[in-house]
Amino acid sequence: MEVKHPVSSKVKVAIIGSGNIGSDLMYKLLKQPGHMELVLLTGIDPNSDGLARARALGLRTSTEGIQAVIDDPEIKIVFDATSARAHVRHAKALQEAAKIAIDLTPAARGPYVVPPANLEEHLDKRNVNMVTCGGQATVPLVYALSSVMPLLYAEMVSTVASLSAGPGTRQNIDEFTETTARSLEVIGKAKRGKAIIILNPADPPIMMRNTVYAIPEGDFAEDTAIEAVEQMVARVQTYVPGYHLKNRPVVDTLDTPWGRRQVLTMLLEVEGAGDYLPRHAGNLDIMTASARRVGEMFAQRLLGMQQEVEA
């Protein structure tokens, strides 16, 4: 008689980077672990507030950075919340250690991933990139529209509280706009994309707000387009509850570089969950919430593969 060993229902995961992003992700993984078990938060600053909070929660910590992850063969999925420069080094080491890397930096050593748009086609990859906060917020809407009609152009304007934009964001504004515009084309399927980011110093801080403009190639069914957008918003809300449209998408006929055409305008707001970061930091919250969603899907796939092997 064949003896079957019980299949683990959790995949061990780790976070590299104990700053704001890594700390907020830690709280999300502890609050909603799903099929993941967070076993390590590692950084390089022994005085890190994130590491201190992790220890207080009973989580294993390290100041040895990526080495602590490499040394633990049970860790299968790694969230990298460090920097683009660091992830370039980390990507190679994690690949050699046969670990899946979910990259929250601008390094983009793997394909761009936006969960409701293209995650399923990249679940066989060993490294995926979470694009940008603007990409996670606006690409789903553009993707929804392009699924029901071809788009000539998509543009997003993202306004975030100045307090929620750290030094990494400020130093990489050009990279942010280029990456986000590219994701509107690669994932959103617009023929041309453009991205703009505005840091608003208002006090009290504003919520993350995004305006999305889309120009279809030709005539389209307005009700069908709006229904596609509203269905996508509902899908994103399953993992980012504070994600919502400020109004029903508006259709106007305007002069454009392609002549007089119909233009759809969508106003979107993202409120953070307040797990670690303040609620106005929706731009950071949508990154960590999306990363948690991606990790969950990878964990389910790994467990499914394990069940097939042991069946």
UniProtKB/TrEMBL annotation:
Keywords: Aromatic hydrocarbons catabolism, NAD, Oxidoreductase
Cleavable signal peptide: none
Keyword Lipid biosynthesis carried by entry: no
Main EC class the enzyme belongs to: oxidoreductase
Domain of life: Bacteria
Binding site for NAD(+): S18, G19, N20, I21, S164, A165, G166, P167, G168, T169, R170, Q171, N172, N283
Catalyses which reaction(s): acetaldehyde + NAD(+) + CoA = acetyl-CoA + NADH + H(+)
Residues in Semialdehyde dehydrogenase NAD-binding domain copies: 12-125
SUPFAM superfamilies xrefs: Glyceraldehyde-3-phosphate dehydrogenase-like, C-terminal domain (SSF55347), NAD(P)-binding Rossmann-fold domains (SSF51735)
E.C. code: 1.2.1.10
NCBIfam families: ac_ald_DH_ac, PRK08300.1
Record family assignment: Belongs to the acetaldehyde dehydrogenase family.
Protein name per the record: Acetaldehyde dehydrogenase
Native source organism of the sequence: Ktedonosporobacter rubrisoli
